[in-house]
Amino acid sequence: MTLPGSAVLAAGDPRQEVLAADAGQRIVSMVRAAVRPSAFLTPAGFGNALAMLAAVGGSTNAIIHLCAVAGRRGLTLPLRQFAEVSARVPVIADIAPIGTGLMPDLARAGGVPAVLAALAALPSSGGAADPAVLDLSVPVATGGTLGESLVSGPSRWPIGDPVTALPAFMVVHGHLAPDGAVIKAAAASPALLRHRGPAVVFHSYEEMRRRIDDPSLDVTPDSVLVLAGCGPAGMAMPEWGNIPIPAKLLSQGVTDMLRITDGRMSGTGFGTVVLHAAPESAVGGPLSRLREGDIVSFDAYAGELSVSADLTAREPILPAVADKRGWPVLHRMHVTQAPEGCDYDFLQARTPEQLAFTEPVIGRS
Questions:
Q1: pLDDT band at residue 360 using 50, 70 and 90 as cut-offs
Q2: What is the pLDDT of residues 241-263, one digit of tens each?
Q3: pLDDT digits over 4-54, tens only?
Q4: Which region, left, alpha or beta, applies to residue 40 given φ > 0 means left and ψ of -120 to 50 means alpha?
Q5: What Cα–Cα distance (Å) separates residue 158 from each residue in 95, 101, 161?
Q6: To bridge 189 with a disulfide, which of 154, 172, 256, 346 should be the other Cys (CB 3.0-4.6 Å)?
Q7: Long-range CB contact pairs, 34-38, < 8 A, 24+
Q8: Catalytic residues, which ones?
Q9: Which of 120-134, 215-229, 295-309 has the lowest mean pLDDT?
Q10: What is each CA distance from 58 to 92, 181, 183, 214, 314, in whole angstroms?
Q11: What count of Cα atoms within 13 Å lies in the side-chain half-sphere of residue 230?
Q12: Is 274 helix (H, G, I), strand (E, B) or coil?
């Protein structure tokens, strides 16, 4: 969807002006040739995007964005597909928070085209159960196919030497996330990817900030910190998921804990944080029924997130609703959950008939 070399340029880079002009010219020629975005937004194209995301150890936010874009196209990106791709594609870009470099380092090393060239070189048995990492037949914005656009030559990203043995992303389901939750496994503490401990539950961001550094907080390094009420309907999905380590534990040298939330966190964040738990607390999801001391079991390798307590008989703790009319109400009524991209349901393409329908252009001769 973009011209090669434009994805990771730093703000103010003089090449941006040249690429902007090139993009404008290319857009006009594509319009004249009746080339539409739908030509690029295909299952194969999304599959390539997932592979690229895994290879650079990208942000968990990108999972939401890709699901939203797919929904507008009438496609579905199940969370298991992100997990399956991440299990096959190693993290090869040595950039933070998994590696040591920064985005300008990625740009100097050839950016997205260099990573794609490296992925194209990944071996495959060619069998139905082991497809190639990239589909090189998909069209690209410059014209032609992805395979034709890749620059041949030695890769700047050594496939045989991944940054980490862990996959970029893992997906879990269970009592606390029936519709799924994600974790950036490569940025987590390996020792916490299997963990069992008592929950310390905050049902709002305000409660978390009020209690997290209280010396009387009943918390140990084995505790599981849970922040509920900050999903798409509850708080419009803010980046609050990276719950701070309680001050009393920081003073003991604790640097990471298992954390669970229905919200997001920054792509630059590090830690063992289970994100986007769905359905969210604000719509009565399981986190709204979790209580202090409930024993949480987490196994990222097995894809499981469960709790020892029976949550079904409990009343949910829902966030207070201040706005009773207007746009906030419409938002809560129509926003979808994280696995669907936190988009508005009336903007998603649902059927082939809807995709084929074209609105008339008013006022044009």
A1: very low
A2: 999 999 999 999 999 999 999 99
A3: 888 888 888 888 999 999 999 999 999 999 999 999 999 999 999 999 999
A4: alpha
A5: 14, 15, 5
A6: 256
A7: 37/1, 38/73, 38/355
A8: 266
A9: 120-134
A10: 11, 16, 12, 34, 37
A11: 24
A12: strand
> In this structure, are residues 126 and 156 in contact, taking their beta carbons and an 8 Å threshold?
no
Q: Give the contacts of 201 (CB within 8 A, at least 6 positions apart).
A: 226, 228, 287, 290, 291, 292, 294
- The amino acid present at 359, given as its one-letter code, is E
Domain boundaries defined on the chain: 1-165+333-365, 170-307
Q: Quickly tell me which residue has 């040298």 as its tokens.
A: 253
Output the pTM of the full model.
0.90
Give 111's pLDDT tier (boundaries 50, 70, 90).
confident
Count Cβ atoms below 10 Å from residue 139 Cβ, excluding itself.
17
CB 309 within 8 Å of CB 291: yes
With contact defined as beta carbons under 8 Å apart, do 205 and 305 qualify? Answer: no
Tell me the C-alpha distance between 224 and 109, whole Å. 39
- What residue has token string 């390798």? 301
Token pair of 99, please?
Answer: 């590696």
Q: Looking at domain 170-307, which CATH architecture does it have?
A: 3-Layer(bba) Sandwich (3.50)
Q: What are phi and psi of 314, to 5 degrees?
A: -90, 150
Residue 323 has pLDDT above 70, yes or no: yes
> Quick one: 254 exposed, middle or buried, by C-beta within 10 A (0-12, 13-18, 19+)?
middle
2, two tokens: 């973009």
